[in-house]
Design brief:
- By secondary structure, the protein is an alpha+beta fold.
- It folds into two domains: about 5-145, Sandwich (Immunoglobulin-like); about 175-240 and about 275-320, Glutaredoxin (3-Layer(aba) Sandwich), CATH 3.40.30.
- The protein has helices at about 10-15, 190-195, 215-230, 245-260, 270, 280, 310-320, and strands at about 20, 45-50, 55, 55-60, 60-65, 70, 80-85, 95-100, 100, 110-115, 115, 120-130, 140-145, 200-205, 235-240, 290-295, 300-305.
- The strands form four sheets. Strands 1, 2, 5, 6, 9 and 10 form a six-stranded antiparallel β-sheet that branches. Strands 3-13-12-7-8 form a five-stranded mixed β-sheet, with no helix packed on it. It has a four-stranded mixed β-sheet with strand order 15-14-16-17, with helices on one face.
- A hairpin with a 7-residue loop joins strand 12 and strand 13 (about 140-145).
- Helix 3 packs across helix 7.
- It is globular, with a radius of gyration of 19 Å.
- The protein starts with 9 loop residues before the first helix and ends in a 5-residue tail after the last helix.
């Protein structure tokens, strides 16, 4: 995860495997390490927000579960979310939903709901969690700031036109991804050309080798698998977060952050962009991974922050191809 979104929470639980924050405070990226097998019900369970922001309109709200500083991956967990507008005199439930488990192939599970916030402001989120073996759910009440708008491109907005590198632009596909085995199919068309192709596009920003959430690599593998199924109907594009050579770019960014920290000031825009790929900067992303589903007209139909699974994305791609709302 990038410097602006590095927060404690899950990062303290499993050093390289995740980051996040306890529910009730903003969090980024999401994800951490845990085995997918069913686990005995722990004495205490803390839900964590696994996203960096919520905005007015439709949202993908992902929640992770932590017990004793260990992220959980429990398919049988029951997670129920209720949303209240706290700016109202007598807040009532505006939306409630069971969260859907998505943790297949990921180092930690995400429990996802898709609420719609009709206004920005202060919202309350009641999260009920019941694991196998627990007689009663654990209930937590949390605050969530809902923004009027986002710097990150959102659903309903036009995709930002940017050139992304393809296999034709470099001598080796290994210069396009920090992963160990880049799939050439993910680098066949530049984003600017994809937006003119008349086909939908799945655009993934991820850095497999340097991902602080440990979800970039698994998410990229999911997209590579989906490309084999839907590649004739959808443009699939992976954008590496950092410029090649990747390790040097990561070091440059770390140095910029260290310099600003030592001087006790915020980074300049130029420092913030140090080492990042051009498309990453153009899309104003400050965490990873991010996936954007873009319809055939170039409008963003869905955005996903954090780990991805084929169970969530397969049906979404079917809707995208059919021209239906993704969420």
């Amino acid at each position: 995860m990038l410097y602006r979104r590095i927060l404690p929470g899950l990062a303290l639980a499993l050093a390289l495997a995740g980051c996040g924050q306890a529910a009730g405070t903003p969090a980024a990226g999401g994800g951490a390490s845990a085995t997918p097998e069913a686990q005995a019900a722990p004495a205490n369970v803390t839900p964590v927000f696994a996203f960096s922001e919520a905005v007015a309109g439709k949202n993908r709200i992902a929640v992770g579960l932590v017990s004793n500083n260990t992220p959980l991956n429990e398919p049988a967990a029951k997670v129920h979310l209720r949303f209240f507008n706290l700016d109202e005199t007598n807040p009532q439930v505006k939306f409630e939903s069971d969260a859907i488990y998505y943790g297949q192939g990921l180092p930690a599970a995400f429990y996802v709901a898709y609420p719609s916030f009709d206004t920005p402001g202060n919202w309350g989120v009641e999260i009920q969690v019941q694991l196998p073996g627990q007689a009663q759910p654990v209930v937590s009440k949390n605050r969530l700031e809902v923004k009027q708008s986002s710097e990150v491109p959102n659903v309903g907005q036009p995709a930002i036109v940017a050139k992304t590198l393809t296999s034709k632009d470099v001598p080796s596909v290994s210069q396009l991804s920090s992963g160990p085995h880049p799939d050439p199919a993910m680098y066949q068309i530049s984003l600017d050309q994809a937006l003119k192709s008349g086909k939908p596009t799945a655009l993934l920003f991820a850095t497999p080798a340097f991902c602080r959430t440990a979800t970039c690599g698994p998410s990229l593998q999911v997209m590579q698998g989906l490309q084999k199924t839907y590649g004739d109907k959808v443009n699939f594009i992976h954008v590496e977060v950092y410029k090649y050579p990747f390790d040097a770019s990561v070091e440059q960014q770390q140095q910029a952050v260290a310099k600003a920290s030592k001087e006790r000031r915020a980074l300049t825009d130029a420092e913030a962009a140090t080492g990042l790929s051009d498309a990453m900067v153009a899309w104003k992303l400050q965490s990873e991974p991010w996936l954007f589903l873009i319809d055939a007209k170039g409008m963003i139909a869905g955005r996903y922050e954090g780990g991805l699974t084929k169970e969530e994305l397969g049906p979404a791609l079917e809707k995208l191809i059919a021209g239906q709302p993704v969420f």
